[in-house]
Amino acid sequence: MPGTENKTAKGKAATHVRQKHALLVVNPRARRGTGSIAAARDVLEKAGIRVTEEKPAAGENIADVIRRNAEGHDFVMVGGGDGTLNAAAPALVETGLPLGVIPLGTANDFARTVGISAEPAKAAETIAAGKLQGIDLGEVNGHLFFNVASIGFSAELAQDLTEHAKKRWGTLGYAIVAARILMRSRLFTAFVDHDGTTEKIRTMQVSVGNGRHYGGGMTVEETATADDGRLDFYSLEVDHWWRLLALLPSLRKGTHGRWDDVRAFQTTEVTIRTSKPRPVNTDGELSTYTPAHFRIRPKAIKVFVPAG
Fold first, then answer.
1. Does residue 161 register a pLDDT over 90?
2. Where would one find the signal peptide in this protein (predicted)?
3. pTM of the model
């Protein structure tokens, strides 16, 4: 009978729908990394996604795990904070595998930028829903970053903020260490090359942002997104630490570019030179030194984001 043939054909087609296979990599040192992510896995498995968790072997990092297991997986889920995502970035670009974010870190600034819930189970629901978006990455001296790269105050903060402090105090740890560094910070001279011009500046901090949020509550620029194809530069050219305290509300909102002692512009490429090498903080990790050449990598990876 024709009706029977159609039902049989549909049944055969249904059996040939391939199950999605996700690679899960969790950073056990993330603030919530030692906790269970069983609820997140349960959400995905109920959605028909097979999850395989892999851990770094001796001498491996997270990028190595992704490269080693890329074949046979449809996407990668990374459980950790912004530093963990930063470590995974090179392998995500190389393999082209989409990224699902399970926020387990202290600040989870990238997750906030794209609207991913801080609750692992809800983040897993976003992944299961399947909406992918092309996301830009910043690059400095060959090192990729999701949120922001900074020279000066933030680099000193990254140097002094220990894993112990982050685990014990969370975002409060940033404030405690920042206050101590702020009292001893001094301006430094830098040369900024961008868009055919060179500017000499005296600054406490230079930041180059790709996304919107960074540093556990700061905002690079109020209109910034992670897919706008541009870098947001700003320089804090304040002469007294108490001026920075006055700036804090604007730094949280991303409106600091309106202040006279803040230099701000948008670009796609910029180089920062200093008289002696200074460390560059990328997503909370010290990764390179000045001279620092920054550029935007438009739509470098695909990320599961909330619908709407």
1. no
2. none
3. 0.84
